[in-house]
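Give me the fold.
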Amino acid sequence: MREMSAAMAKRTALAAQGLASPHRVTERGASSRAVHTVIERNRLLQIDSVSVLVRAHYAPLFSRVGKYDRSVLDAAAWTDTARRPRRLVEYWAHEAALVPVEDWPLFRWRTELYAHGRWGGAHTVLERNPSLSQDILDVLRDAGPSSAGDIERVLDSPRPGRRGPWWDRSDVKVVVEQLFAAGVVSVATRSGFVRRYDLVERVVPEHVAAQVVSEPDAVRQLVAQSASALGIGTEPDLRDYYRLSQKQTKAAIVDLVEDGTLEPVAVRGWGAAAYLHAGARTPRAATGSALLCPFDPMIFCRPRVERIFDFHYRIEIYTPLHKRVHGYYVFPFLMDGDLVARVDLKGDRAASQLQVLGAFVEGDRDPGPIADRLVPHLREMAEWLELESVVVGERGDLVGALSRAL
Protein backbone atom coordinates (compact mmCIF):
# COMPACT_ATOMS: atom_id res chain seq x y z
CA MET A 1 0.00 0.00 0.00
CA ARG A 2 1.30 3.42 -0.94
CA GLU A 3 2.14 5.76 1.94
CA MET A 4 1.60 9.53 1.93
CA SER A 5 2.61 12.23 4.37
CA ALA A 6 -0.13 14.27 6.03
CA ALA A 7 1.17 17.34 4.18
CA MET A 8 0.80 15.60 0.82
CA ALA A 9 -2.73 14.50 1.73
CA LYS A 10 -3.63 18.06 2.71
CA ARG A 11 -2.35 19.47 -0.59
CA THR A 12 -4.29 16.77 -2.44
CA ALA A 13 -7.50 17.71 -0.62
CA LEU A 14 -7.02 21.42 -1.29
CA ALA A 15 -6.32 20.83 -4.97
CA ALA A 16 -9.45 18.70 -5.34
CA GLN A 17 -11.51 21.57 -3.90
CA GLY A 18 -9.85 24.18 -6.11
CA LEU A 19 -8.20 25.89 -3.15
CA ALA A 20 -4.51 25.05 -3.60
CA SER A 21 -3.76 27.99 -5.90
CA PRO A 22 -4.70 31.68 -5.73
CA HIS A 23 -7.74 32.72 -7.72
CA ARG A 24 -7.26 35.49 -10.19
CA VAL A 25 -8.96 38.78 -9.32
CA THR A 26 -10.26 40.70 -12.35
CA GLU A 27 -12.09 43.99 -12.73
CA ARG A 28 -15.14 42.30 -14.22
CA GLY A 29 -15.13 39.33 -11.88
CA ALA A 30 -15.18 35.60 -12.55
CA SER A 31 -16.72 34.27 -15.74
CA SER A 32 -19.81 32.08 -15.68
CA ARG A 33 -17.60 29.28 -17.01
CA ALA A 34 -15.44 29.49 -13.87
CA VAL A 35 -18.55 29.34 -11.70
CA HIS A 36 -19.85 26.25 -13.47
CA THR A 37 -16.42 24.60 -13.26
CA VAL A 38 -16.61 24.85 -9.45
CA ILE A 39 -20.14 23.43 -9.44
CA GLU A 40 -19.04 20.55 -11.66
CA ARG A 41 -16.10 19.80 -9.37
CA ASN A 42 -17.91 20.00 -6.03
CA ARG A 43 -21.27 18.52 -7.18
CA LEU A 44 -23.21 20.19 -4.35
CA LEU A 45 -23.72 23.53 -2.65
CA GLN A 46 -25.24 23.37 0.81
CA ILE A 47 -28.22 25.67 1.42
CA ASP A 48 -28.74 27.38 4.75
CA SER A 49 -31.07 30.14 5.89
CA VAL A 50 -28.52 32.26 7.79
CA SER A 51 -28.27 35.64 6.06
CA VAL A 52 -26.03 37.65 8.38
CA LEU A 53 -23.52 37.99 5.52
CA VAL A 54 -24.57 36.06 2.41
CA ARG A 55 -26.55 32.84 1.92
CA ALA A 56 -24.36 29.76 2.28
CA HIS A 57 -24.72 28.46 -1.29
CA TYR A 58 -23.16 31.60 -2.76
CA ALA A 59 -20.04 31.68 -0.56
CA PRO A 60 -18.02 28.62 -1.74
CA LEU A 61 -17.98 29.99 -5.28
CA PHE A 62 -16.60 33.31 -4.06
CA SER A 63 -13.91 31.47 -2.09
CA ARG A 64 -12.71 29.75 -5.25
CA VAL A 65 -13.17 32.29 -8.04
CA GLY A 66 -13.51 35.64 -6.28
CA LYS A 67 -16.24 38.14 -7.06
CA TYR A 68 -18.78 36.75 -9.50
CA ASP A 69 -22.29 37.58 -10.59
CA ARG A 70 -24.62 35.73 -8.20
CA SER A 71 -27.34 35.78 -10.87
CA VAL A 72 -25.29 33.11 -12.68
CA LEU A 73 -25.96 30.72 -9.81
CA ASP A 74 -29.57 31.87 -9.46
CA ALA A 75 -30.18 31.16 -13.14
CA ALA A 76 -28.58 27.72 -12.89
CA ALA A 77 -30.80 26.79 -9.94
CA TRP A 78 -34.09 28.55 -10.52
CA THR A 79 -34.42 29.43 -14.21
CA ASP A 80 -35.76 26.92 -16.69
CA THR A 81 -36.39 28.05 -20.26
CA ALA A 82 -35.75 26.66 -23.73
CA ARG A 83 -32.69 28.89 -24.06
CA ARG A 84 -31.52 28.42 -20.49
CA PRO A 85 -32.51 25.02 -19.09
CA ARG A 86 -32.20 24.36 -15.37
CA ARG A 87 -28.76 23.06 -14.37
CA LEU A 88 -29.24 22.60 -10.61
CA VAL A 89 -32.04 21.17 -8.50
CA GLU A 90 -32.64 21.16 -4.75
CA TYR A 91 -32.67 18.00 -2.68
CA TRP A 92 -31.32 16.42 0.50
CA ALA A 93 -27.68 15.70 -0.36
CA HIS A 94 -25.35 17.02 2.35
CA GLU A 95 -28.35 18.46 4.19
CA ALA A 96 -30.45 20.67 1.88
CA ALA A 97 -28.34 21.36 -1.19
CA LEU A 98 -28.22 22.31 -4.82
CA VAL A 99 -27.02 19.41 -6.97
CA PRO A 100 -26.66 19.02 -10.75
CA VAL A 101 -29.96 18.07 -12.39
CA GLU A 102 -28.34 14.97 -13.90
CA ASP A 103 -27.67 13.68 -10.37
CA TRP A 104 -31.39 13.57 -9.52
CA PRO A 105 -31.76 9.83 -10.33
CA LEU A 106 -28.93 9.06 -7.88
CA PHE A 107 -31.21 10.09 -5.02
CA ARG A 108 -34.28 8.06 -6.01
CA TRP A 109 -33.51 5.49 -3.29
CA ARG A 110 -33.52 8.35 -0.78
CA THR A 111 -36.89 9.64 -1.99
CA GLU A 112 -38.23 6.14 -1.35
CA LEU A 113 -36.61 6.11 2.09
CA TYR A 114 -38.29 9.47 2.77
CA ALA A 115 -41.66 8.43 1.37
CA HIS A 116 -43.28 9.54 4.65
CA GLY A 117 -40.93 12.48 5.17
CA ARG A 118 -37.57 12.77 6.89
CA TRP A 119 -38.94 12.83 10.43
CA GLY A 120 -42.35 11.18 10.17
CA GLY A 121 -44.33 14.21 11.34
CA ALA A 122 -46.46 14.15 8.20
CA HIS A 123 -47.96 10.82 9.27
CA THR A 124 -49.75 12.43 12.23
CA VAL A 125 -51.00 15.30 10.08
CA LEU A 126 -52.34 12.99 7.39
CA GLU A 127 -54.13 10.89 9.97
CA ARG A 128 -56.13 14.02 10.82
CA ASN A 129 -56.59 15.03 7.20
CA PRO A 130 -55.97 12.16 4.76
CA SER A 131 -56.72 14.30 1.70
CA LEU A 132 -54.18 17.06 2.41
CA SER A 133 -51.42 15.58 0.20
CA GLN A 134 -53.75 15.37 -2.76
CA ASP A 135 -55.17 18.82 -2.01
CA ILE A 136 -51.67 20.28 -2.11
CA LEU A 137 -50.85 18.52 -5.38
CA ASP A 138 -54.10 19.78 -6.89
CA VAL A 139 -53.20 23.35 -5.96
CA LEU A 140 -49.74 23.02 -7.50
CA ARG A 141 -51.15 21.41 -10.63
CA ASP A 142 -53.56 24.31 -11.09
CA ALA A 143 -51.51 27.24 -9.83
CA GLY A 144 -47.92 26.27 -10.64
CA PRO A 145 -44.98 27.30 -8.44
CA SER A 146 -46.33 28.18 -4.99
CA SER A 147 -44.99 28.73 -1.50
CA ALA A 148 -46.45 26.91 1.48
CA GLY A 149 -48.20 30.18 2.37
CA ASP A 150 -49.68 30.42 -1.13
CA ILE A 151 -51.03 26.88 -0.84
CA GLU A 152 -52.56 27.62 2.57
CA ARG A 153 -54.36 30.65 1.18
CA VAL A 154 -55.83 28.66 -1.71
CA LEU A 155 -56.96 25.82 0.55
CA ASP A 156 -58.60 28.30 2.91
CA SER A 157 -60.78 29.61 0.08
CA PRO A 158 -64.33 28.21 -0.06
CA ARG A 159 -64.76 25.52 -2.71
CA PRO A 160 -67.81 23.54 -3.84
CA GLY A 161 -68.31 20.54 -1.57
CA ARG A 162 -65.67 21.72 0.92
CA ARG A 163 -66.65 22.65 4.47
CA GLY A 164 -63.38 24.33 5.30
CA PRO A 165 -59.91 23.13 6.28
CA TRP A 166 -59.48 20.59 9.06
CA TRP A 167 -55.81 21.30 9.56
CA ASP A 168 -53.52 23.80 11.27
CA ARG A 169 -51.69 26.26 9.06
CA SER A 170 -48.34 24.59 9.78
CA ASP A 171 -49.75 21.29 8.53
CA VAL A 172 -49.38 22.41 4.91
CA LYS A 173 -45.70 23.15 5.47
CA VAL A 174 -45.19 19.74 7.11
CA VAL A 175 -46.87 17.85 4.27
CA VAL A 176 -45.36 19.82 1.40
CA GLU A 177 -41.92 19.18 2.94
CA GLN A 178 -42.81 15.48 3.11
CA LEU A 179 -43.74 15.56 -0.58
CA PHE A 180 -40.45 17.31 -1.33
CA ALA A 181 -38.44 14.68 0.58
CA ALA A 182 -40.38 11.93 -1.19
CA GLY A 183 -39.50 13.39 -4.59
CA VAL A 184 -43.13 14.13 -5.50
CA VAL A 185 -42.65 17.90 -5.57
CA SER A 186 -39.52 19.95 -6.05
CA VAL A 187 -38.46 23.58 -5.80
CA ALA A 188 -39.14 25.46 -9.01
CA THR A 189 -37.78 28.78 -7.79
CA ARG A 190 -37.26 30.89 -4.71
CA SER A 191 -38.59 34.31 -3.82
CA GLY A 192 -36.75 36.07 -1.02
CA PHE A 193 -35.30 32.67 -0.13
CA VAL A 194 -38.82 31.22 0.28
CA ARG A 195 -39.26 27.96 -1.59
CA ARG A 196 -41.85 27.93 -4.36
CA TYR A 197 -42.81 24.31 -4.94
CA ASP A 198 -44.07 22.61 -8.08
CA LEU A 199 -44.71 19.09 -9.30
CA VAL A 200 -41.41 17.30 -9.79
CA GLU A 201 -42.22 16.49 -13.43
CA ARG A 202 -42.32 20.23 -14.13
CA VAL A 203 -38.93 20.83 -12.48
CA VAL A 204 -36.80 17.79 -13.39
CA PRO A 205 -36.57 17.10 -17.15
CA GLU A 206 -38.53 14.05 -18.26
CA HIS A 207 -35.50 12.22 -19.66
CA VAL A 208 -33.71 12.66 -16.30
CA ALA A 209 -36.68 11.76 -14.10
CA ALA A 210 -37.27 8.62 -16.18
CA GLN A 211 -33.83 7.20 -15.40
CA VAL A 212 -33.89 4.29 -12.97
CA VAL A 213 -30.68 3.68 -11.01
CA SER A 214 -30.52 0.93 -8.42
CA GLU A 215 -29.51 1.92 -4.91
CA PRO A 216 -26.11 0.13 -5.03
CA ASP A 217 -25.25 1.73 -8.39
CA ALA A 218 -26.42 5.16 -7.22
CA VAL A 219 -24.47 4.97 -3.97
CA ARG A 220 -21.36 3.80 -5.83
CA GLN A 221 -21.60 6.85 -8.09
CA LEU A 222 -22.18 9.18 -5.14
CA VAL A 223 -19.14 7.81 -3.31
CA ALA A 224 -17.06 8.19 -6.48
CA GLN A 225 -18.21 11.81 -6.71
CA SER A 226 -17.41 12.36 -3.04
CA ALA A 227 -13.92 11.00 -3.57
CA SER A 228 -13.38 13.17 -6.65
CA ALA A 229 -14.54 16.30 -4.78
CA LEU A 230 -12.42 15.51 -1.72
CA GLY A 231 -9.37 14.11 -3.53
CA ILE A 232 -8.52 11.88 -0.61
CA GLY A 233 -10.57 10.81 2.38
CA THR A 234 -11.39 8.19 4.96
CA GLU A 235 -14.56 6.14 4.77
CA PRO A 236 -16.37 8.52 7.16
CA ASP A 237 -15.26 11.47 4.98
CA LEU A 238 -16.66 9.85 1.84
CA ARG A 239 -19.84 8.93 3.68
CA ASP A 240 -20.42 12.41 5.10
CA TYR A 241 -20.35 14.25 1.77
CA TYR A 242 -23.78 12.89 0.79
CA ARG A 243 -24.78 11.74 4.28
CA LEU A 244 -24.73 8.05 3.39
CA SER A 245 -24.74 5.12 5.81
CA GLN A 246 -21.61 3.22 6.78
CA LYS A 247 -23.05 0.03 5.27
CA GLN A 248 -23.69 1.75 1.94
CA THR A 249 -20.31 3.43 1.78
CA LYS A 250 -18.21 0.42 2.74
CA ALA A 251 -19.80 -1.72 0.03
CA ALA A 252 -19.30 1.01 -2.58
CA ILE A 253 -15.65 1.49 -1.62
CA VAL A 254 -14.92 -2.20 -2.16
CA ASP A 255 -16.28 -1.94 -5.72
CA LEU A 256 -14.49 1.34 -6.45
CA VAL A 257 -11.16 -0.03 -5.25
CA GLU A 258 -11.67 -3.07 -7.42
CA ASP A 259 -12.35 -1.03 -10.56
CA GLY A 260 -9.45 1.36 -9.92
CA THR A 261 -11.46 4.48 -9.11
CA LEU A 262 -10.06 4.50 -5.56
CA GLU A 263 -6.63 3.54 -4.30
CA PRO A 264 -6.17 2.59 -0.64
CA VAL A 265 -3.34 4.64 0.86
CA ALA A 266 -1.84 5.07 4.30
CA VAL A 267 -1.57 8.69 5.43
CA ARG A 268 0.95 9.15 8.20
CA GLY A 269 -0.73 10.54 11.30
CA TRP A 270 -4.31 10.07 10.15
CA GLY A 271 -4.86 6.89 12.15
CA ALA A 272 -7.47 5.59 9.69
CA ALA A 273 -7.50 3.98 6.26
CA ALA A 274 -7.66 6.51 3.43
CA TYR A 275 -8.69 6.35 -0.22
CA LEU A 276 -7.17 8.41 -3.03
CA HIS A 277 -9.26 9.17 -6.09
CA ALA A 278 -7.67 8.10 -9.38
CA GLY A 279 -7.98 11.61 -10.80
CA ALA A 280 -6.58 13.42 -7.77
CA ARG A 281 -3.39 15.46 -8.07
CA THR A 282 -0.92 16.46 -5.40
CA PRO A 283 0.67 19.86 -6.09
CA ARG A 284 4.16 20.62 -4.82
CA ALA A 285 2.85 23.49 -2.74
CA ALA A 286 -0.42 25.06 -1.62
CA THR A 287 -0.26 28.82 -2.17
CA GLY A 288 -3.94 29.80 -2.23
CA SER A 289 -5.82 31.85 0.34
CA ALA A 290 -9.55 32.09 0.94
CA LEU A 291 -12.24 32.88 3.48
CA LEU A 292 -14.29 29.72 3.99
CA CYS A 293 -17.98 29.83 4.89
CA PRO A 294 -19.03 27.53 7.77
CA PHE A 295 -20.93 25.40 5.21
CA ASP A 296 -18.11 25.19 2.65
CA PRO A 297 -17.44 21.63 1.36
CA MET A 298 -13.81 22.02 2.39
CA ILE A 299 -14.75 22.32 6.05
CA PHE A 300 -18.33 21.12 6.63
CA CYS A 301 -17.08 17.75 7.88
CA ARG A 302 -15.61 18.92 11.20
CA PRO A 303 -13.66 15.72 12.12
CA ARG A 304 -11.96 15.88 8.70
CA VAL A 305 -11.02 19.53 9.30
CA GLU A 306 -9.43 18.60 12.61
CA ARG A 307 -7.54 15.68 11.07
CA ILE A 308 -6.24 17.59 8.04
CA PHE A 309 -5.59 21.02 9.52
CA ASP A 310 -5.34 20.36 13.28
CA PHE A 311 -8.08 22.98 13.55
CA HIS A 312 -10.96 22.54 15.99
CA TYR A 313 -13.98 24.30 14.50
CA ARG A 314 -17.55 24.52 15.69
CA ILE A 315 -20.17 26.96 14.47
CA GLU A 316 -21.53 29.09 17.34
CA ILE A 317 -24.84 30.26 15.83
CA TYR A 318 -26.81 28.33 18.42
CA THR A 319 -24.47 29.16 21.30
CA PRO A 320 -25.75 31.87 23.68
CA LEU A 321 -24.00 35.18 23.07
CA HIS A 322 -22.15 35.21 26.40
CA LYS A 323 -20.73 31.73 25.73
CA ARG A 324 -19.42 32.34 22.21
CA VAL A 325 -15.66 32.13 21.84
CA HIS A 326 -15.17 33.57 18.35
CA GLY A 327 -18.54 34.81 17.14
CA TYR A 328 -21.86 34.13 15.42
CA TYR A 329 -20.79 33.46 11.80
CA VAL A 330 -17.08 32.74 11.71
CA PHE A 331 -15.11 32.17 8.51
CA PRO A 332 -11.82 30.27 8.88
CA PHE A 333 -9.09 31.91 6.79
CA LEU A 334 -7.02 29.58 4.62
CA MET A 335 -3.50 30.70 3.76
CA ASP A 336 -0.77 28.64 2.10
CA GLY A 337 -2.32 25.33 3.08
CA ASP A 338 -3.19 26.13 6.69
CA LEU A 339 -6.20 27.54 8.50
CA VAL A 340 -4.47 30.47 10.15
CA ALA A 341 -7.26 32.68 11.50
CA ARG A 342 -10.98 32.98 12.29
CA VAL A 343 -12.99 35.99 11.17
CA ASP A 344 -16.47 36.82 12.47
CA LEU A 345 -18.22 38.62 9.61
CA LYS A 346 -21.46 40.52 9.17
CA GLY A 347 -22.88 42.48 6.26
CA ASP A 348 -24.61 45.66 7.44
CA ARG A 349 -26.64 46.70 4.39
CA ALA A 350 -28.08 49.83 6.01
CA ALA A 351 -24.59 51.19 6.75
CA SER A 352 -23.13 49.58 3.58
CA GLN A 353 -20.37 47.98 5.66
CA LEU A 354 -18.63 44.63 5.73
CA GLN A 355 -18.12 44.37 9.47
CA VAL A 356 -15.27 42.33 10.94
CA LEU A 357 -16.80 41.85 14.38
CA GLY A 358 -13.84 39.80 15.54
CA ALA A 359 -10.62 38.36 14.12
CA PHE A 360 -8.41 35.78 15.81
CA VAL A 361 -5.00 34.36 14.97
CA GLU A 362 -4.77 30.58 15.16
CA GLY A 363 -1.88 29.48 17.37
CA ASP A 364 1.20 31.64 17.85
CA ARG A 365 1.48 32.94 14.28
CA ASP A 366 2.55 36.49 13.47
CA PRO A 367 -0.65 38.51 12.81
CA GLY A 368 1.05 40.95 10.38
CA PRO A 369 1.49 38.66 7.35
CA ILE A 370 -1.96 37.15 7.95
CA ALA A 371 -3.58 40.59 7.93
CA ASP A 372 -1.73 41.55 4.74
CA ARG A 373 -3.11 38.48 2.96
CA LEU A 374 -6.59 38.77 4.48
CA VAL A 375 -7.29 42.43 3.66
CA PRO A 376 -7.57 41.94 -0.16
CA HIS A 377 -10.13 39.18 0.44
CA LEU A 378 -12.18 41.41 2.72
CA ARG A 379 -12.10 44.26 0.21
CA GLU A 380 -13.03 41.93 -2.63
CA MET A 381 -15.87 40.46 -0.57
CA ALA A 382 -17.20 43.93 0.25
CA GLU A 383 -17.15 44.85 -3.43
CA TRP A 384 -18.84 41.56 -4.35
CA LEU A 385 -21.61 42.21 -1.83
CA GLU A 386 -21.89 45.86 -2.94
CA LEU A 387 -20.82 47.19 0.45
CA GLU A 388 -18.86 50.43 0.47
CA SER A 389 -16.41 49.83 3.30
CA VAL A 390 -14.72 47.30 5.57
CA VAL A 391 -14.97 48.14 9.27
CA VAL A 392 -12.91 46.28 11.89
CA GLY A 393 -14.18 45.79 15.45
CA GLU A 394 -12.27 45.28 18.65
CA ARG A 395 -12.47 41.56 19.44
CA GLY A 396 -9.50 39.29 18.86
CA ASP A 397 -5.73 39.41 18.54
CA LEU A 398 -5.82 39.99 14.76
CA VAL A 399 -7.91 43.17 14.69
CA GLY A 400 -4.98 45.53 15.38
CA ALA A 401 -2.95 44.25 12.45
CA LEU A 402 -6.06 44.25 10.26
CA SER A 403 -6.86 47.87 11.08
CA ARG A 404 -3.30 48.89 10.23
CA ALA A 405 -3.33 46.93 6.98
CA LEU A 406 -6.61 48.51 5.93
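The longest strand covers residues 338-348.
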